[in-house]
Amino acid sequence: MTATGIYAPEILVDGRFVTDHIVLIEKDVVINILPKEQCPDGVPVISFDDGKLVPGFFDIQVNGGGGVLFNDDPSVAAIKAIGAAHRIFGTTMFLPTLISDDLEKIEQAIAAVDAAIDQGVPGVVGIHLEGPFLNAEKKGIHDARKFRRLDEAAIRLLSSLRKGRTLITLAPEMTDCASIAKLAATGVVIAAGHTNATYEQTLEAVKAGVSGFTHLYNAMSPFQSRAPGAVGGAFATTDTFASLIADGFHVHPASLSLAIRTKGVAKTILVTDAMPTVGSAQKEFWLGEERITATGGKCENASGVLAGSDLDMASAVRFIVNNTKYTLEDACAMASKSPASFMKVDHAVGDIKIGTKANFTLLDNNLMVSQTWIDGVIFKGQTRR
């Protein structure tokens, strides 16, 4: 037998922690989870005296990390650097995310992700294209000069990734339902974001193929008594997913709790929306013509507009545990199983069960990351932050 065992005092299996169990992996796949005393003779076991083994985190919105911004350098080398910066904080799967840019840059980014997957860069699951099919009224830090309409040529480009999964964020009101349906039919996952859509427009877009909402509350039409907006549309459509940035700056803890209670843990996704400052001593960078500074964990431009985040996934998990009524089990599900389900890869990742990839995060008793595994390969966890 070429299996290896991993023992931790607590292991998160099927939404609950079990004690005194071992996860058996062979190559990059989980082949069994069994009580410690039932481990077959001769199997080498990596043992940890304390800590909790949880599914590796899956971040579907990663603009940068390790001093690198994907928009500045849409290359395999940049993807490697971003992945390395985030895996020390427990992220074992991620979508390199391109902020609104020209179609030529999108083409380069898609080619880079395809090449990264071909080369086996750890953790790359696909790509997230956040724009440029957005509404200037809700542009946030995006450069509205890059915005454009969704046409046939764009649909062909957006669906051109050969390997992995593609997530597109768009403003439904800036296109039409026929185009949304055509894009969805190619197999890409579509989220509404940076949108000023009405409640009615949002519901129509969901019928056409929108299945999620990017950073709920932020840069979208709010929920009001006589105008429920895109947020109301997210709350009303129980089969859609919603991502949230749990850093204490983007969303109030009460609003976080309301969203989770409304959508349910299984339909709520934690994202970082991370910028190059994560995993780096560099706390300033340029986003196009905007100088962005990270201070006290918050990224913003000179006018105080939020510009992504200085957040890592382990910190997001801790924020949920420390600032809402939701448990560590819930937070881990929102950081792993929910995004895997949204991106339609939950058969392979997002949980610790037989047949899934050996992607794990070991949390210490303070919920800091001490080890990560990506496809069975072990990496060291965070040493600072």
Automatic annotation (TrEMBL):
<feature type="binding site">
    <location>
        <position position="226"/>
    </location>
    <ligand>
        <name>substrate</name>
    </ligand>
</feature>
<feature type="binding site">
    <location>
        <position position="215"/>
    </location>
    <ligand>
        <name>Zn(2+)</name>
    </ligand>
</feature>
<dbReference type="GO" id="GO:0008448">
    <property type="term" value="F:N-acetylglucosamine-6-phosphate deacetylase activity"/>
</dbReference>
<feature type="domain" description="Amidohydrolase-related">
    <location>
        <begin position="53"/>
        <end position="382"/>
    </location>
</feature>
<feature type="binding site">
    <location>
        <position position="141"/>
    </location>
    <ligand>
        <name>substrate</name>
    </ligand>
</feature>
<keyword id="KW-0378">Hydrolase</keyword>
<keyword id="KW-0119">Carbohydrate metabolism</keyword>
<dbReference type="Pfam" id="PF01979">
    <property type="entry name" value="Amidohydro_1"/>
</dbReference>
<comment type="similarity">
    <text>Belongs to the metallo-dependent hydrolases superfamily. NagA family.</text>
</comment>
<feature type="binding site">
    <location>
        <begin position="306"/>
        <end position="308"/>
    </location>
    <ligand>
        <name>substrate</name>
    </ligand>
</feature>
<dbReference type="GO" id="GO:0046872">
    <property type="term" value="F:metal ion binding"/>
</dbReference>
<dbReference type="GO" id="GO:0006046">
    <property type="term" value="P:N-acetylglucosamine catabolic process"/>
</dbReference>
<feature type="binding site">
    <location>
        <position position="194"/>
    </location>
    <ligand>
        <name>Zn(2+)</name>
    </ligand>
</feature>
<dbReference type="InterPro" id="IPR032466">
    <property type="entry name" value="Metal_Hydrolase"/>
</dbReference>
<feature type="binding site">
    <location>
        <begin position="218"/>
        <end position="219"/>
    </location>
    <ligand>
        <name>substrate</name>
    </ligand>
</feature>
<dbReference type="InterPro" id="IPR003764">
    <property type="entry name" value="GlcNAc_6-P_deAcase"/>
</dbReference>
<feature type="binding site">
    <location>
        <position position="250"/>
    </location>
    <ligand>
        <name>substrate</name>
    </ligand>
</feature>
<dbReference type="InterPro" id="IPR006680">
    <property type="entry name" value="Amidohydro-rel"/>
</dbReference>
<feature type="active site" description="Proton donor/acceptor">
    <location>
        <position position="273"/>
    </location>
</feature>
<protein>
    <submittedName>
        <fullName>N-acetylglucosamine-6-phosphate deacetylase</fullName>
    </submittedName>
</protein>
<feature type="binding site">
    <location>
        <position position="130"/>
    </location>
    <ligand>
        <name>Zn(2+)</name>
    </ligand>
</feature>
<keyword id="KW-0479">Metal-binding</keyword>
<dbReference type="InterPro" id="IPR011059">
    <property type="entry name" value="Metal-dep_hydrolase_composite"/>
</dbReference>
